[in-house]
Amino acid sequence: MPEIDLATVIFAIIALFVAFKLRSVLGMRSDDERPTGGLIAPLRRAPGPEAIPSPPNAPVSAPPAVVPPAERWKGAAQPEAWPGLDALAAADPTFSADDFLAGARMAYDMIVHAFAAGESQTLRGLMAPEAFANFDKAIRARVSAGQVMTTTVVSIEDAKIVAAQLDGAISQIGVRFTAKLASVTRDSAGEVVDGSPTDVADHIDIWTFVRDVRSRDPNWRLTETHSEH
Fold first, then answer.
1. The pTM is what?
2. At what angle do helices 129-144 and 97-117 cross, to 10 degrees?
3. Is a pLDDT exceeding 50 seen at residue 127?
4. Counting Cβ atoms within 10 Å, is residue 124 exposed (0-12), middle (13-18) or buried (19+)?
């Protein structure tokens, strides 16, 4: 019987014990878990957008709330103008009463000053043909008489929509302006023939603006004016 080396037996027992402990901690690797041969497994491509499923029972966006005319046009227009504004907004969803009134105020200031200065070309771009013809006629008559007019818009106290209608694609909006103006007209000798060089007068006027809602031109043009006093 061969002699058994004690040291060899001890080392063999230790090796078996270590192997057993490693197996109990790490477990056995299945065939599917075997390395592919590389040190780093190949990266998998992330799924494209079409591969991302929609979440179940995704919420559906609610339709925009319908704002009643009393809230939609409140402060900008009188009640009698609301039906016309509703029709206009339906034909042109970009319409904003506040934006319109801001533009109307600017037009009022520009037209009053251009008329006093006799600037017909400026007026032509801001008015419908029939309104321009009336203003231009007045300017020519003033020039023929040798008169000079000076007007200053001191303030526009208020501007409110008082009428609105949609006739086919043509929309008309009437605006009541309450303003303070300082205006004077002098003859060729410099004498005052109308107005006052120092007084500020209150003016209440209704101006009607027109626009074709099918047009790409967003500008409204003055088509009619009349004074309330």
1. 0.70
2. 20
3. yes
4. middle
